[in-house]
Design a protein that fits this description.
- By secondary structure, the protein is an alpha/beta fold.
- The protein folds into two domains: 127 residues, Probable inorganic polyphosphate/atp-NAD kinase, domain 1 (Rossmann fold, 3-Layer(aba) Sandwich); 132 residues, Tumour Suppressor Smad4 (Sandwich).
- It contains six helices and 17 strands.
- Strands 1, 2, 3, 4, 5, 6, 7, 9, 10, 14 and 17 form an eleven-stranded mixed sheet that branches. Strands 13-12-11-8-15-16 form a six-stranded antiparallel sheet, with no helix packed on it.
- Helix 2 crosses helix 3.
- 41% of the residues are buried.
Amino acid sequence: MKIGIYANLERDIDGGAARTLATLLIKRGHEVLLSRNLACLNLHSPLLDKSELASASDAIVVLGGDGTVLRIAKECAAHRTLIIAINFGHMGFLSEIEKMDELDVVFEQIEKGDFYTEKRGILEVSFQGKSYKALNEVVLARGRSTKLIRFSVIVNGNTLNNYSADGIIVSTPTGSTAYSLSAGGPVVAPELNAMIITPICPHSLNSRSYIIADDSKITIELKKSDGETNLNIDGDDVITLQAGDTINVKRSGLDALFIRLKKYNYYRKLLAKMNTLN
């Protein structure tokens, strides 16, 4: 197999784990490709940017936390490249591997085909002719101003609600354990075809999260913003919005494909990760 390695060097200090992984994969007969930031390893493997790495690899091993996975997952989805996540972060909801000493056993199973592929849906966000992708969530939120923003949420042409709030989150089931959860949203099993709409600190006692079908089309109309209002995609601010702006959110045709070993249990992982928050 052609296996790419994408690592967060703030988590994998000096690339020690990436080097161990590359050495193991080469020893097992795989062709190894590296993200450009791993030039420090001084290995005789091609150095590629994210899109090139995803396009050239059969699978990519990600070393980092969930944020690192988010940065490469959409590129992988575009090329249907498999993802194997090794947790070097705090939560690691998306990870398959927690310990480096599991690597030999894990790749022996993968080489035998003793795994299954888990699909995680991706959202498409449209604004003024530009398109963005989100594996976790789309967030419309006030910036430095302490004043609430006002906006409407429209689903399939029908007004769902008019809000005065700090913002709104539209998440996938994958993102239901991220910002949406912190804002009081529900945990939604990843196999469900759904989107979750969660207001952020709404100025109303009857504003709750909604779970809707993922073939719905969501429109968010910004009515009033006294300060800056940001459009944030998977944790990154991509644009500042003004009153009168409209964004559209729908399910894209892409899926992030995660390799799962047969021992993987979403609910056991969820319980373990949630307990670390207590």
